[in-house]
Specification:
Oligomer: single chain
CATH class of the largest domain: Alpha Beta
Helix content: 40-55%
Number of strands: 15
Largest sheet: 7 strands, parallel
Radius of gyration: 24 Å
Low-confidence stretches: none
CATH superfamily of the largest domain: Glycogen Phosphorylase B
Number of domains: 2
Pfam families: DUF3492, Glycos_transf_1
Structural class: alpha/beta
Number of helices: 18
InterPro entries: DUF3492 (IPR022622), Glyco_trans_1 (IPR001296), PelF-like (IPR047691)
CATH topology of the largest domain: Rossmann fold
CATH architecture of the largest domain: 3-Layer(aba) Sandwich
Protein name: GT4 family glycosyltransferase PelF
Distance between the termini: 11 Å
Length: about 475
Amino acid sequence: MRVGIIFEGTYPYVTGGVSSWGNTLIKNMKDVEFCIIQIGDVPKIRIPKYTFSENVVDYFEYFLFAKYNFSKKQKITKDFGKKLQDILKYPFDEKVMSDKLYKLFHDYFNYDFTSILKSEIYWEVMLEFYKAYIPYENFTNYFWTLQSMLLPFLNSMTVDFPKCDIYHTITTGYAGISAIMNGIKNNTPVILTEHGIYHRERQLEVLKAGWIKDEYRLAWIKLFNTISSLVYKGSKKITTLFSKNQIFEKELCDDESKMYVIPNGIDYEKFSKLEYRKEKEPYVVGLVGRVVEIKDIKTAIKAAKMVKEKIPHFKLLIIGPTDEEPEYYKECQEMINIFRLEDTIEFTGKVNVLEYYPKLNVLLLSSVSEGQPLVILEAFAVGIPVVTTDVGACSEMIHGSKEDIIGEAGIVVKPKDFVGLANGMIKLYEDDEFRYNASKIAKIRVEKRYKLEQMIKNYRDLYLSVVK
């Protein structure tokens, strides 16, 4: 079996999260051949952070904003353009729109979709939208805004992947639309696994982005929603890491019969052999993750300042690479200097976490967005209690799900709540009984629900279910 697994801006060039999950899945499914498909923004030289295992038999890469020569493909026809024009009525319901587009793409799939931008139909629709909705907007700005919105999707629809038995996309969006179109072209089933919910994440980005004018925000959101809905429709199976994610998937997917939860898994034996540090002098807390804005290291630093005032021998280790967002790393260092925490907070850089988990009393996670963080599962296997923000699956992991009511494995607070994070760390320091009990519950929970062997079995069964 050959699986084309599609990553958007992550594996093999970015560590952590989705990349770590993908690398683990590939390495531990040795009887499956994998073709790695990577989607970048613009062509550039990048250094891989992972070494491919022997069962990776092909690598394919394309770029969203590159200019490709699709001359061997047929340009879109007037017939296609007319049908597309009949569909594109604004405003629209995203699920209805995606259903119509999916049916259209089944009839017209092996075309150069970027040629739409040079067609008469495109000009007619573009001018119609302009006159109806934003005639006051600068036309040049309007023209190039539409180009920047549509080109990456049209490239994604047109590019041809290596042929595989399954396409497994790790997000909707650009990766998802490429998977669906290649699935149609090659009569190949598509599986979708969502760590975070793409259309929700893009909506938040669009609403916050300073470079997007208000006139275009709704159009951006509807575009991403439509693409996600189309990918949900075209996927044979839809998996996510935890049940709360399915609430958001159901906003754009009506077919619950193809929706499954497959939690992350870790090598329990490897991490459970490490000994949990009960000695709390000094009191050492670790934040394991990349020093990037989404991990909200600044909120962790604010919390550390409060803990230090209460516990003089407190130490915070920030364990992870610092080179991904150098400006943000510099701002964090400046913040530490202002708070005079140079002797309290240490950036370790990229290290072997197996050497650091035995040094920790508590794991801290301050992220503003997560899926199902592997670092929490790793800490649990060691028996390290966790203080975390309520993002992704973190609350379910700390409190347990409805099938798992054995107790609390740490403390959960709202994102950006540095006071809550500080109080959580102080509570685990002062309440030995709670800390020891959380440690025991953490090990039990990860052993029962989050072992790597079960995760690999679940994905193997999933692959077999769509190719039989």
